[in-house]
Design brief:
- The complex is a heterodimer.
- Chain A is of the alpha+beta class.
- Chain A has a domain of about 110 residues.
- Chain A is about 65% helix and about 10% strand.
- In chain A, the strands form 2 sheets. In chain A, strands 2, 3, 4, 5, 6 and 7 form a 6-stranded antiparallel β-sheet that branches. A 4-stranded antiparallel β-sheet of chain A has the order 1-10-9-8.
- In chain A, helix 9 packs antiparallel against helix 10, helix 11 packs antiparallel against helix 14 and helix 17 packs antiparallel against helix 18.
- By secondary structure, chain B is of the alpha/beta class.
- Chain B has 2 domains: about 30 residues; about 140 residues, Glutaredoxin (3-Layer(aba) Sandwich).
- Chain B contains 5 helices and 7 strands.
- Chain B has a 5-stranded mixed β-sheet. Chain B has a two-stranded antiparallel sheet with strand order 1-2.
- In chain B, helix 3 links the parallel strand 4 and strand 5.
- Chain B is globular, with a radius of gyration of 19 Å.
- In chain B, about 45% of the residues are buried.
- The chains are: A alpha+beta, B alpha/beta.
């Protein structure tokens, strides 16, 4: 009964979305206030219906209703409650429903809090949002129905893939989708602007907080995904340039560019058509990501069950949304008033360079991801593009961008004094060089690249701090005045500095873990000690244990440093009987400066007196900084989001809600 | 149209190309659609063993009987998903499974096989990925059914599921054995 309610709710949501996507649009075209006003209650109704459907599916999972095909295929009574709930979106159909729900939540937010938007703009935005919803709801209902029944119902389900039964991966999709779908807001605003033929500073002010919200979520979503790859795959790697990883990274790069170009749009009333194009591209890349994962065009570690009819549907949808909006752009954008020219050495000039580098980087990732497909489509050879291409093209593009990250924010609008800016960054430059030289001295004989990388990271952090100190006039004015300035500095200034510094933290983590990882593989008997990077790892023993839906061999390893206890590690080897699948659970002890990482392998029972085990132990320097930095970046974004000036576009209530949501992330 | 307006058309033009490629890709690639290598002899190759003492794998090994060639790597998550099924194929003696360890550290691959079981009758190490390119491997896992004459009969992209095995692969093996 309850799954049928979900099914009906989903169909009703589609009908509401169709209404919301057409009538207000016509209303805005004709200037009919009543028709335009329809969008607001429709957005409420749409949320209500999609949330009902989502609630029904969750209910089916929580109660293990195996008469629902989707539940039978992806759940099991013995599965812990957390994974029963995360199982709702751990499959193709349910994840689409989650996508539709998040889309409805964003629509609801505009409907509820966008009361101070001009009526035609609000009608346009809500209608475009609804049209995107139509696509996703229709896709769900017609090709991927999560409520399909199974008769007779099996006694138990076939369980969720054990690799997905992991806290890191349980919450990775919701954050990723909050990011992907969040970019639909910038997209809807961009299309609305094209339809109205008008972009002004106020428009940019409305777009910025939405983009920032989506971007924060996407940042944390990507960080979670890479964290999962790090501890679940167990080779100490955290990014594999896999097509689906790239699919989430491309919208992030484009979204980062959008974030920065919208600033120019707001402050200098320039780069308008470029900002609109970026908004379209960012969301298009989010949609493309969905296409790549679900169509079977590219296969990857994350691929959901693929199905050609689904591929055709998504391609059609993609052509309609992306092709349609780019066509609209081609027709309407030339008529937009272009902003004035500006000097290359200025804040806006540096933001243009930022945009150039970010979009080029995005294009290289795009090319690397799609190249095999293009070549295949042309009937050419089958090729694969791997990490060497990406690191070879990406790093050279990122290096100047990161160098500029410290300089750009110090420049003034309109015309900046470059020697002056560099002079004020003297301390940061000295600090960065000192760090680089020190590192190189300590790692003498090896490549200077790691030293350069860490130096660059120090430059980013020191540069961000210098930027703040400058604005406080620290050291150049009496302390009291500096304090006053610090208190009154806009939060967005702190947010930016924190986010830029976070980038430095991430970079340091990447460089150090890539350059100085220590690895040790050995056979160990209970009582044996392995020494890695100055730590002693003593295997105390291995015990057989029973988990809720798995059996486990759990080792206990005592880690000491010069006799002082550091940590107890419990690496596990699990076996999930329902799917007959083993998983390796690495044990990780994080200090602030490194991860101690232990994995237990096979048992050799006939090895002299008593069993011995294969163990792998890693010392990964600075690797926690990668995710720590990701969190710092996200916090920077959230602080910036709480800035008073970002609230102009929406009333205070909306702001507060959105920031708490972002902070909770 | 003026030249200056052309740049506004450029995005939609680029997208048209991308969409066309995606459309063609959709018809080319999904599992049921044959790879250009179907019914062609397997590309010639000779790979060193993954272990020092093992046997390695060469195209000449794929003659005379129906075999399944599976590309795998320790860094590939989906490979772990299909691995129990490959183990079963070997345990129950359904079809000989040959492995090509693609773009992987042999040491990692060995540990991986130790942990998950080793279903491969023979396996070769393709560290550079060169042989995989000849086979048209794009992402892992990929599996190929080879007929008695050493020709590629079927290509499977992505992890083999229970359903793939029952509906496609096992019937095809029966047919190839004739």
């Amino acid at each position: 009964m309850i799954p049928e309610i979900g099914q009906y709710a989903l169909i009703l949501a589609l009908l509401v979305a169709l209404t919301q996507g057409t009538l207000p649009l016509i209303g805005a075209h004709r200037g009919d206030a009543d028709w335009m006003a329809l969008a607001r209650p429709a957005s409420f109704a749409q949320f209500l219906f999609v949330a009902t459907a989502f609630g029904c599916l969750t209910h089916a999972y929580v109660t293990s209703d195996f008469s629902v095909l989707n539940v039978a295929q992806n759940s099991h009574t013995a599965k812990p409650m957390l994974y029963k709930i995360s199982g709702v979106w751990g499959n193709h159909e349910g994840s689409l429903l989650l996508w539709a729900l998040i889309l409805a939540v964003y629509g609801l937010a505009v409907g509820a809090f966008g009361t101070n938007l001009p009526a035609p703009l609000r009608a346009h935005v809500l209608a475009i949002q609804a049209l995107v919803s139509v696509g996703f709801l229709a896709f769900t209902i017609f090709t991927s129905n999560p409520f399909e029944r199974l008769d007779p119902a099996p006694l138990n389900g076939s369980d969720l893939n054990p690799l997905l039964q992991d806290p890191g991966l349980a919450f990775h999709p919701p954050f990723l989708y909050l990011g992907y779908v969040g970019f639909s807001m910038a997209f809807s605003f961009a299309i609305a602007a094209l339809l109205e033929g008008r972009v002004d500073a106020a428009w940019a002010r409305w777009v910025r907080p939405w983009t920032l919200t989506a971007w924060c979520f996407l940042t944390i979503g990507i960080a979670m995904g890479s964290w999962w790859a790090y501890y679940e795959l167990g080779w100490g790697g955290f990014w594999f340039w896999d097509p689906v990883e790239n699919a989430s990274f491309m919208p992030w790069l484009a979204g980062t560019a959008l974030l920065h170009s919208a600033i120019v749009c707001e402050k200098r009333d320039a780069l308008k058509s470029w900002t609109i194009l970026l908004a379209i591209i960012t969301f298009s890349l989010s949609l493309l990501g969905t296409f790549l994962v679900r169509s079977g065009v590219l296969t990857s570690v994350h691929a959901f069950a693929t199905d050609p009819t689904r591929g055709v549907f998504i391609l059609g949808f993609l052509v309609f949304v992306v092709g349609g909006s780019l066509l609209l752009y081609a027709v309407r954008a030339p008529a937009m008033k272009t902003g004035g020219l500006f000097a290359p050495i200025s804040r806006e000039g540096s933001l243009v360079v930022n945009n150039l580098l970010l979009s080029t980087a995005c294009a290289t990732v795009f090319l690397g991801t799609m190249y095999p497909l293009f070549l295949d489509a042309l009937g050419g050879d089958k090729v694969s593009v791997g990490a060497p291409y990406f690191t070879g093209t990406f790093a050279p593009l990122m290096t100047p961008l990161l160098m500029l990250t410290a300089i750009g924010p110090m420049m003034s609008w309109k015309r900046a004094d470059l020697p002056g800016v560099l002079g004020r960054l003297k301390l940061a430059l000295i600090a960065a060089l000192a760090v680089a030289v020190l590192i190189w001295a300590f790692t003498s004989g090896s490549s200077p690249l790691p030293a350069f990388g860490i130096g660059l990271a120090a430059w980013l952090i020191a540069g961000a701090l210098t930027g703040l100190a400058e604005r406080m006039k620290l050291g150049r004015a009496p302390l009291r005045e500096s304090w006053n300035r610090a208190v009154h500095l806009p939060r967005s200034a702190y947010g930016m500095a924190i986010a830029h510094a976070g980038l430095g933290v991430v970079l340091a983590g990447i460089v150090a873990s890539q350059s100085w990882q220590a690895e040790s593989i050995q056979l160990m008997r209970a009582g044996d000690v392995a020494e890695v990077a100055g730590y002693e790892f003593k295997l105390l023993g291995v015990r057989q244990e029973q988990g809720p839906n798995y059996e486990s061999q759990r080792a206990e390893i005592l880690v000491t440093e010069n006799g002082d206890m550091v940590a107890r590690l419990f690496p596990e080897k699990r076996h999930y009987p329902v799917q007959d699948m083993p998983t390796t659970e690495a044990a990780i002890h994080s200090t602030w400066f490194a991860d101690l990482y232990a994995v237990i392998g096979d048992e050799n029972p006939h090895d002299g007196d008593g069993s011995s085990w294969n163990t792998r132990i890693y010392h990964n320097p600075l690797v926690p900084w990668i995710w720590l930095g990701g969190i710092v970046i996200m916090i920077g974004g959230a602080i910036s989001l709480s800035d008073r000036r970002h609230r102009v576009g929406a009333p205070t209530r909306a702001r507060r809600l959105r920031t708490t949501a972002a902070e909770a992330a | 149209m003026q030249i200056s307006q052309l740049r506004f058309v450029l995005p939609v033009a680029v997208f048209a190309v991308v969409a066309a490629a995606l459309g063609v890709g959709l018809t080319l690639d999904p599992k049921r659609v044959p790879s250009p290598l179907i019914d062609k002899p397997v590309p010639e190759f000779s790979l060193p063993p993954v272990t020092e003492e093992g046997e390695g794998l060469a195209s000449t090994d794929l003659q005379g009987q129906v075999t399944l060639v599976n590309f795998f790597a320790s860094w590939c998550v989906s490979c772990q998903v299909e691995h129990p099924l490959l183990n079963r194929l070997t345990e129950e003696d359904i079809v000989p499974v040959y492995g090509i360890n693609w773009k992987d550290e042999p040491a990692n691959a060995l540990r991986w096989l130790k942990a998950l079981g080793d279903p491969y009758a023979r396996k070769g190490s393709d560290v550079s990925g060169r042989v995989g390119i000849d086979w048209g491997v794009y992402g892992l896992p990929e599996s190929y059914l080879i007929d008695r004459h050493g020709r590629i009969a079927y290509k499977h992209i992505g992890p083999i599921t229970e359903r793939d095995l029952d509906n496609t692969i096992l019937p095809l093996i029966e047919r190839l054995r004739g």
